[in-house]
Amino acid sequence: MNAFSSPTSAPMQPPPIPFPSKRASDVAFSSLSGGLAVDIAVIGASVAGLFVAQGLSRLGYRCALIGPDPPLLRQKSGFDQRIFAISPSSWDWMTQQGLSAAIDAARVGVIDRMHLEAPPWASPPPIVLDAYRAAVDQLAVTVEQSELLAAGQQAVAMTNVLRLKESLLSLEPEGGGANDGLRSIRLENGQQLSAKLLIGCDGAHSALRQLAKLPIRQFDYQSTAVVANFEIDSHHRHTAYQWFSDRGILALLPLPGLAMSMVWSAPQSYAQSLTVLEPESLCKQVQGFIETLGSDAPHLRACINTPASFPLLEILTDRPTAHRLLLIADAAHVVHPMAGQGLNLGIGDIIELLEVLSGAGARHDPGSVYVLERYARRRAEAVLAISWLTRGLYQAFREPLPKIASGFANWAWSRVAGSSMLQSFMVQHAVRQGPR
Ligand SMILES: Cc1cc2nc3c(=O)[nH]c(=O)nc-3n(C[C@H](O)[C@H](O)[C@H](O)COP(=O)(O)OP(=O)(O)OC[C@H]3O[C@@H](n4cnc5c(N)ncnc54)[C@H](O)[C@@H]3O)c2cc1C
């Protein structure tokens, strides 16, 4: 049975790992200027860093993973503050890598249906995307960040990745001379490390990106995402909801059992008024707002964790590469969470990078211009597509638009809402293409 279609089935055994030992002397070699040297150094040990490091080690690269362990945010009861919708193609890759087998299947939610509501000032009916009608197993699964981190940490511990828990402090100028062919960094404890390739997975405010002076384009949504999990009074039937409104974009994602996870991307001042509420008042406020939108979503009974908030920016690098260095995941691109694609794009980066680095040409020199160019070309389109989709939807439904523009937005929305063929096409495209 397909592991994606049955997250409650017994966990599969991860594939055998070829490296039983992880002594530094097995992994690193000495650079000519002293200090440790590896084939590839990955900076940032959150989900993207852990996933790519274990994949590189399985390919046979001598790899170091640098940076502190992120805090595990699972709360005593209930779920993590951070819940991710993971696309089928990301999940399939995680299954091939043995990563999804390490995730507690009972904590994985399933999205079979997605209910999208246009804002009240636009007239079109809701768009309902349905896995059954589109003949796919599921639209996505929902997974807690702590589960993803634990799976990644377990996989890394089973490979011979050299784990250094200090932060990156500085980047040495481009090599030349004795160390040509390597790029060097210094960690907070003064340790020097050289690698043929540095991979930045150090998040939206990437230190490596700043040290390498890679230019970015930034768009401030002037919004904040408020996240919280709720107990509900009737089963969600694996349906996700998203409303576009004058108070931002509110999404509810199904969790296992009688629970849903909220991401409310609200204008800053309104979001601030939500973040100061006690959990009980927040629950009432969200429920009241959903009622004003008129919806068949389950009734929210109680907020079951401490809410959190995240300011929303779009950050895109002009190019994710520089001399012997590349950025992936949020270090390279941060997008609005409305489409639940940020981490999926990051996993798409990893899939593509591992494919490029598994080629014979890359084995000799994984940091060569040829490898970096190939990788950058393969990822440019996917990142732009998500950026256009999220920016476009944000602009189209942020507030009442001028007549011509709103007429066009309504027409396009209605076409999708009224056509099961278009809906199936959208679902199949999203499910098959996933993060790529
Ligand atoms: C509200 C919200 C909801 C979202 N929902 C979804 C969703 O449903 N689906 C989805 O796919 N995506 C979603 N996303 C996007 C997702 O959160 C990110 O894309 C993902 O977390 C990025 O992971 P990352 O590993 O690249 O970066 P991060 O998780 O930010 O990790 C960066 C790591 O780098 C480390 N680091 C930083 N500086 C240094 C340094 N100098 N040296 C060493 N290490 C360093 C940090 O300690 C951290 O561990 C959402 C985002 C938001 C804000």
Please characterize this protein's 3D structure.
The protein is α+β, with helices and mostly antiparallel strands and 436 residues long. The chain has two domains: 24-75 and 148-216 and 318-389, 3-Layer(bba) Sandwich (FAD/NAD(P)-binding domain); 83-144 and 218-312 and 400-433, D-Amino Acid Oxidase, subunit A, domain 2 (D-Amino Acid Oxidase, Chain A, domain 2, 2-Layer Sandwich), CATH 3.30.9.10. The chain is built from twelve helices and 21 strands. It has helices spanning 24-27, 47-58, 88-96, 145-158, 207-211, 268-275, 279-293, 342-357, 360-364, 369-397, 403-417, 420-433, and strands at 29-30, 36-43, 63-66, 83-86, 109-111, 113-117, 127-130, 140-144, 162-164, 168-171, 183-187, 192-200, 216-232, 239-245, 248-254, 259-267, 300-303, 308-317, 321-322, 325-327, 333-334. Strands 1, 2, 3, 9, 10, 11, 12, 19 and 20 form a nine-stranded mixed sheet that branches. Strands 6, 7, 13, 14, 15, 16, 17, 18 and 21 form a nine-stranded mixed sheet that branches. A hairpin with a 4-residue loop joins β11 and β12 (192-200). α2 runs parallel beside α4. Residues 43-49, 66-68, 70, 84-85, 167-168, 201-203, 207, 225, 227, 263, 310, 329-330, 337, 340-344, 346 line the site of flavin-adenine dinucleotide. The site of flavin-adenine dinucleotide (FAD) has 32 residues, from α2, β4, β13 and α8.
